[in-house]
Amino acid sequence: MKRAIEHKSHKTTKAKLVKLFSQFIRLRDSNEHGIGQCISCGKFITVWYKYNGIKFKQQAHAGHYYSRGASKSLYFDEKNVNLQCCECNSFKEGNKQGYARGLIRKYGDGVLDLLEIKAGNTCRLTEVEMQLLIREYEYKVKKLKEVSNE
Questions:
Q1: Which alpha helices (DSSP H) does the chain contain, by range?
Q2: Does residue 82 have a pLDDT over 60?
Q3: What are 120's strand-pairing partners?
Q4: How does 106-143 read in b/e, with b if 16+ C-beta sit within 10 Å?
Q5: How many domains is the chain built from?
Q6: Range of the domain at 139
Q7: 150 located within any domain
Q8: Which of 14, 30, 66, 91 has the maximal Cβ count within 10 Å?
Q9: Mean pLDDT score, 121-146
């Protein structure tokens, strides 16, 4: 019974971290007006906007170059996860060629090699590691919200 409780706690913590990390990526990759650019196709996307003081979210994704299932070690890697339009992420299977070009433009020539090396690592975050990441991304999201007036 105790193991089931720990597993549920781990799942709950991971879900919270996923939500915060995705929010961070969307804020990091958009400007103060809520506009960002898809890393794969370059299309400008409305990530969020305000109307009469009410905030609305648009269909912008935090897309993974190495999918979440393919490499657990890159699940929360900030270079592996970037703003993507829903068309590239959902309907073009990530638009990998465009994504690779976008990564090189954004981070430089060695980024694909770096991600490939990291993808070979195996890791499973512990509860404590996830809690620390939650605190880190709560802070980062707070700072980005202050800058963007979101």
A1: 2-28, 86, 96-107, 111-119, 127-148
A2: yes
A3: none
A4: eeeeebbeebeebbeeeeebeeeebeebbeebeebbee
A5: 1
A6: 2-145
A7: no
A8: 30
A9: 92
